[in-house]
């Protein structure tokens, strides 16, 4: 009696694992691109110039969150929701509407960001044009990436991401070798090429599906979600980028460079959670569309446990080896920013743990979708209050403390809400992981860890072994879960449906 549901669940898990692996590969390419770009730029310029490059990058990222961030979330959610409900025409109608809004807002925000930052930091004409192009192309990049996932084109997305990342890296190398100062143009080229290729692939996919009728969707609900999504992403992801702008106001130029380097370095730590989010958000939206609440529970439970267990050892190494990491990234003069990096690492740990819970809530009913937005706004306001109080005397470290406080608050609310809604048993694993991170942060106060040495390397090795021993049982359960997703049964096609599932009237 339970063979078919079990086969479907395992097949779904296998598909998510494959999609997650492809997403991980693509995001590694994205992270390597930003690391190579940042490292080469920091070594080719002085700290003041690199700090300005960081400010322009942050401004473009923040501008892309004002409306394109919410629009991209809307595309990923409502395209997948309508597909999960069997309404392919509705999925294409929602995509077309949101994509047009995204194109117009991307161009407008590109011009606006160049004008504002140009006035505040006296940008020359080349930098202003580069900033406008980067804001526009990055905004389109986020929109089209979401569309690819919403339509289930994960493999095609991964190939395009890899190719355009190589293009951006090659362009960066050329700019540095030739001594040019157009440091943002390689990223513009990569993101712009990505948008062109994705839109071409999406048009092919629509023709292949042969959708001719005009679909319908709840425009008011879509716009409401888009606005809330923009507010939430601006208050969470925008806060991270704003740390560089805040440092530019409160801290010395060298400390601005520390924060710019830190933001670039912590980006790779989001590879796994972002890969999960790219796959899970449309998958959860589709599950909500088909009325499968148990699938949402299974996905948020497994992904939260997986993130906590897999990322804790990585963050511990980052905390203890912070001086070495910064020195390798930008040179020996960057090692002085180790405490800033450590504070931002602790903040990012909480930001990563919340990702599955945020996706579970945002992909659900409107009342649930508002919870991550509220938590992000509350956390951002609290963090900014701490920045105002501490950044004056502490400089960049004060900005990092504010970001840590704000991110911890932002993460706590959705995790607790999902914990209670789905009655999950996370207490043991989350307690172990958070206590290990806390212990690692305390150990960094030891004198041998204030700089990198053989003693610091030995301490790091011992702490890592202890962490693996503490988490060994959780790691074994995680590996067992991954193996179950690859069983032969998961590759069998369950009994075919007699037709597409009916739209059950469940609002996303």
UniProtKB/TrEMBL annotation:
| Keyword Chloroplast part of the UniProt annotation | no
Q: Which domain of life is it from?
A: Bacteria
Which keywords accompany this UniProt record?
Answer: Cell membrane, Membrane, Transmembrane, Transmembrane helix
Q: Where in the cell is it found?
A: Cell membrane
Keyword Lipid biosynthesis appears in the UniProt entry: no
Query: In which broad location class does this protein mainly occur, judging by the first location in its UniProt entry?
Result: membrane
Where does the sequence pass through the membrane? 15-36, 48-67, 101-119, 183-202, 222-240, 246-272, 307-329, 341-361, 373-394, 400-419, 426-446, 452-473
Q: Name one GO cellular component term.
A: plasma membrane
Q: Where is this region: Disordered?
A: 489-508
Q: How does it sit in the membrane?
A: Multi-pass membrane protein
- Supply the name of the protein: O-antigen/teichoic acid export membrane protein
């Amino acid at each position: 009696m339970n063979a078919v549901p079990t086969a479907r669940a395992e097949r779904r898990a296998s598909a998510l694992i494959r999609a997650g692996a492809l997403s991980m590969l693509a995001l590694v390419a994205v992270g390597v691109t930003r690391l190579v770009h940042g490292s080469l730029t920091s070594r080719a310029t002085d700290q003041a110039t690199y700090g300005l490059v960081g400010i322009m990058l942050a401004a473009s990222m923040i501008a892309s969150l004002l409306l394109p961030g919410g629009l991209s979330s809307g595309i990923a959610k409502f395209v997948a929701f309508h597909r999960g409900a069997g309404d392919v025409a509705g999925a294409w109608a929602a995509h077309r509407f949101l994509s047009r809004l995204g194109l117009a807002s991307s161009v407008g925000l590109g011009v606006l960001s160049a004008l504002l930052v140009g006035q505040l930091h006296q940008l020359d004409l080349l930098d202003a044009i580069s900033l406008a192009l980067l804001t526009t192309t990055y905004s389109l990049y986020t929109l089209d990436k979401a569309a690819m996932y919403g339509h289930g084109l994960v493999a095609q997305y991964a190939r395009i991401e890899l190719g355009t990342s190589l293009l951006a890296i090659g362009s960066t190398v050329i700019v540095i070798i030739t001594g040019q100062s157009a440091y943002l143009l390689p990223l513009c080229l990569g993101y712009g090429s990505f948008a062109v290729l994705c839109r071409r692939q999406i048009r092919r996919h629509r023709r292949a599906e042969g959708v001719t009728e005009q679909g319908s969707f709840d425009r008011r609900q879509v716009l409401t979600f888009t606005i809330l999504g923009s507010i939430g992403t601006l208050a969470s992801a925008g806060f991270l980028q704003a740390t560089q702008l805040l440092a530019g106001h409160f801290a010395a130029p060298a400390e601005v460079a520390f924060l710019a380097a830190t933001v670039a370095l912590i980006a790779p730590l989001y590879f796994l959670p972002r890969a999960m989010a790219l796959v899970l958000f449309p998958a959860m939206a589709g599950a909500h569309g088909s009325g499968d609440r148990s699938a949402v529970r299974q996905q948020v439970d497994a992904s939260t446990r997986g993130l906590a267990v897999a990322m804790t050892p990585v963050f511990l190494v980052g905390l203890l080896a912070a001086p070495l990491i910064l020195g390798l990234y930008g040179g020996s003069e960057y090692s002085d920013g180790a405490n800033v990096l450590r504070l931002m690492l602790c903040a990012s740990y909480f930001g990563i743990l919340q990702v599955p819970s945020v996706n579970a809530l945002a992909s659900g009913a409107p009342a649930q979708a508002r919870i991550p937005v509220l938590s992000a706004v509350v956390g951002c306001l609290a963090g900014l209050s701490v920045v105002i109080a501490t950044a004056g005397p502490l400089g960049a470290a004060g900005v990092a403390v504010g970001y840590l406080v704000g991110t911890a608050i932002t993460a706590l609310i959705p995790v607790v809400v999902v914990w209670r809604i789905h009655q999950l048993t996370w207490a043991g694993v989350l307690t172990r992981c958070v206590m290990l991170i806390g212990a690692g942060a305390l150990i960094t106060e030891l004198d041998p860890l204030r700089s990198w040495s053989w003693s610091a390397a030995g301490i790091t090795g011992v702490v890592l072994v202890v962490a693996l021993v503490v988490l060994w049982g959780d790691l074994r359960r995680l590996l067992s879960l991954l193996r179950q997703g690859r069983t032969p049964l998961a590759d069998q096609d369950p009994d075919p449906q007699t037709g597409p599932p009916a739209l059950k009237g469940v609002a996303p």
